[in-house]
Amino acid sequence: MNDSESTFVDDTSSDVVYSSPWKAETPGLGLHVATQHITNIGGNKVSHTFNTTGGWSSTITYGYHKMRNAGKAAMYWDGQCLGTISLYDPGNVYHCELTLHDMPSGVHTVMVKVLNQKEPVSGGTYVNVDYFRQYDF
Questions:
Q1: pTM for the whole structure
Q2: Alpha-carbon distance 87 to 74, whole Å?
Q3: What does the alpha-carbon distance between residue 50 and residue 48 come to, in Å, rounded to a whole number?
């Protein structure tokens, strides 16, 4: 798969829904379209609803970057928690992705929830979103 076969939905798109407050940033380097939204408030959510035709090649991806002051988030699909991820890294790691595969046809919502938890070595509990990306072919 390559970028020409996917649909990017940037964090600034009106198709991305945030619970308040998330901070819009333009740190630039390393990010898709040079933007991200970020928060460290537990319980805050970001979601994207999409329509898929289903099949082995249908996926939805949450794009983020890892950083030294990042925390943990829970990933949901259609209201069901699929697990947690840590966005911590001692440096900045861009273009990190969590992808859900083999999506059934229909309208679905993917959501990321800030947990206000962190790795012991992390300097904070920030969670960010860079983009969502859908493959459906």
A1: 0.91
A2: 11
A3: 7
